[in-house]
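Field reference: sequence -> structure
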Amino acid sequence: MEYETKISVIIPVYNTEQYIWDCVKSVLEQTFTYFELILIDDGSQDNSRKICEKVSAKDKRIRFIHQEHRGVSAARNAGIDMAKGEYLFFLDSDDVIHPQLLEAQYKLLKKTQAAIATVGLYYGRTEKFRKPLNWKTKTDCTEKSQYFTNKKVSVCPGNDKIDLFSIGGKMIRREAVRTIRFDEKLTKGEDTKLLSMLISDGADVVALFMDWYYYRKGRAEKGSVYSIEECRNIYKIQESVRNFEIENNKISKAVYTEWCLLCNMVVWYEMGKKNHDIKLERYIKKLIKSERESEIFSKVDWCRKIIFYLGCIDYPLYKRIADFMFWFHTKIEYRFLS
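Structure field:
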């Protein structure tokens, strides 16, 4: 008997043999069953491909393709091109989702007619998946949610109480994507760029205030070393988002995006010093000088400016303060809304 495909779950896979089964299992255990699961092996050198082939043979909803190693953007684009669903859901192969997530986001998108649904992140700090204690089944899995019009969202870390800078956990209406694809030339920030293009194109957003996307934080942090080119690409993406907000008179959002840019510069500058990357240090110094001369920088409040300058001098102290500010901005307002 043929099943109706409403959602296409797209998972790029590359050398994640120790995580992939937990990831796939979390999809197969969803309360919403009208989905297809697309696994794209991007030239893995471990047993990831064998695991994918094995699980795809056991469930007709799973489709598997293998390609030469071309990067995560190429893998996701391949998934988009072969997807049959009305909605696209993106999941990384080392992450896990709550069993009601697809159902909740599907209902919210149907109800609000938004183009994008997002969800809160649960930061797993261990290599082995451990089910969070608050992952309980909800009778009404959409009760803690909010709709944001296009004019009230911004692609910036920590902004608007919702995550719109990473693709994991996002469900997107297929008709909103059309010909938009991930930039295969980018190795960092490719998901931020795609989401910013969707927002710029008029996409509204509905947010589910439940931490139902299990993100393995520790594993991602191990590879957080950027080259000058990667920093330049991320800067250009966030700069374009900020400029779009200025052009559309969303000044408060533009100021916050500017703050995010400044925080990135501090991190990159510290990274250059720590790794004795003189070229990166020089590049960031020039970037900071240029940014300080911009009109939008003058609109950043004095408190954040002081923290920014502190970051250039005493990074450990800056990080403690910045982490607290990020926690306060997201957690306190999150609790108020929920």
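Note: Residues 330-338 have pLDDT under 50 and may be disordered.
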